[in-house]
Amino acid sequence: MTRFDIPSPDAAAHAAALERLDGLVKPVGSLGRLEELAAWLCAASGQVPPPPIARPRVVVFAGDHGVSRLSAYPREITAAMVRVFLAGRSGVNVLAREVGAGVRVLDIAVDADLSDVPDAVRAHKIRRGSGSIDVEDALEPGEARLAFDVGRTVADAEIAEGADLLVPGDMGIGNTTVAAALVAAALGVPAEEVVGAGTGVDEAGRARKVEAVRAGLARAGSRVSDPFELLTALGSACAAATAGFLVQGAVRGVPVLLDGVFSGAAALVAAEIAPDAPRWWLAGHRSTEPSQAFALKALGLAPILDLGLRLGEGSGAVQAIPALRAARAVIADMGLLADLA
């Protein structure tokens, strides 16, 4: 497996940040999580105070999944949503504009003809749809690594254009079932504990999703011990691309703000591929899907926000950007107790 050279956040900057935070015009620790985030940003940037978050970027990895039949919505929605992203009318488009974040959508594995959309959207397409994980592998041999490398390439491109905060987004009917399968396999958690309502299925629909995940786990067997085999058997091209995106952000020393259940599952697999990568990741928000909680606990990440969201797309993570900016403002602009007259 490839070894990734991932830098360590600056421990000296982190220590200096904590010292400064304790000296601000407030009781020690009174700004709670904002102080923790401020110190984290200082360590990531190697500066006290850290620079402003000037160019956050969301990349939405779009693709269809063979288990989409278990969703409350038809898989044709995925292709339709790609066009909505391009029109700037999706949930994440609207929310990202509010915080000055750019949004890019990529067709990684959409099972539709998207010849009418810009070539740049289709430039990294791996395949049309992923296999139904309860009865077959999601990907063909070699496709997981190919998609992983696509994610790395995309991260590099965004960073080259000035991105200083990366947000992985997702779009694909059936992706919560895939996320649940990845988390269950990676952590050895029973299917019934990680499967949620997804797009809003009833209890009978959730039961069908549980059975699909169980079948997938039984079919994959011991192959899940290897992260790329896990992505091949139970993941998707989008999950593999997201994992590569997360790892490359860490390689480049650029903070990554995870979104919900899908990026959490991809992060869990990415951490197996590059164990030092999570030091560059933050969890933007808590999803209502149960598998995300398992993934974040395993990664040692605590969500910044808890708004009861389950949309995906990167929509929850972008709403955490103002909290990061507030944390930066605290350490940059508050006065010091030592300066009081």
From TrEMBL:
Example of a GO MF term: nicotinate-nucleotide-dimethylbenzimidazole phosphoribosyltransferase activity
InterPro entries, alphabetized: Nict_dMeBzImd_PRibTrfase, Nict_dMeBzImd_PRibTrfase_bact, Nict_dMeBzImd_PRibTrfase_N, Nict_dMeBzImd_PRibTrfase_sf
Record Gene3D superfamilies: 1.10.1610.10, 3.40.50.10210
UniProt-listed Pfam families: DBI_PRT (PF02277)
Keywords: Cobalamin biosynthesis, Glycosyltransferase, Transferase
Pathway: Nucleoside biosynthesis; alpha-ribazole biosynthesis; alpha-ribazole from 5,6-dimethylbenzimidazole: step 1/2
Substrates-to-products reaction catalysed: 5,6-dimethylbenzimidazole + nicotinate beta-D-ribonucleotide = alpha-ribazole 5'-phosphate + nicotinate + H(+)
EC number: 2.4.2.21
Biological process annotations from GO: cobalamin biosynthetic process
Family classification: Belongs to the CobT family.
Primary role: Catalyzes the synthesis of alpha-ribazole-5'-phosphate from nicotinate mononucleotide (NAMN) and 5,6-dimethylbenzimidazole (DMB).
Protein name stated in the entry: Nicotinate-nucleotide--dimethylbenzimidazole phosphoribosyltransferase
